[in-house]
Amino acid sequence: MFYSKYYQGLLVALSLCLFSSAHSQEKLEVDIGGALRFNYNLSSWKEGQKDRGGDFGYDLFRLNVNGAYQGIYVDAEYRFYSEAFGGDFLKHGVVGYELNENSKIEVGLAKVPFGIERYNSNNFFLNLPYYVGLEDDYDMGITYTYENDDYEYHLGFFKNSEELRFGSNSENSSNRYSYDIVGRNKEINQVNGKFIWKPLGTKKHRVGASAKYGGIYNLDTEEIGDRYAFAIHHQYHTEDWLIKTQILTAGFNPINAPGEPRNKLLLGAYGVPYDTAAKFEIYTLGVSRYIDIDTKLFKHLEIYNDFGFMDKREKGFTDSFMNVTGVLFSSGPIYCFVDYAAGYNHSWLGGNFVDDFGVGDPDAKWEARFNINIGYYF
Question: How far is CA 143 from the centre of its chain?
Answer without folding.
Answer: 16
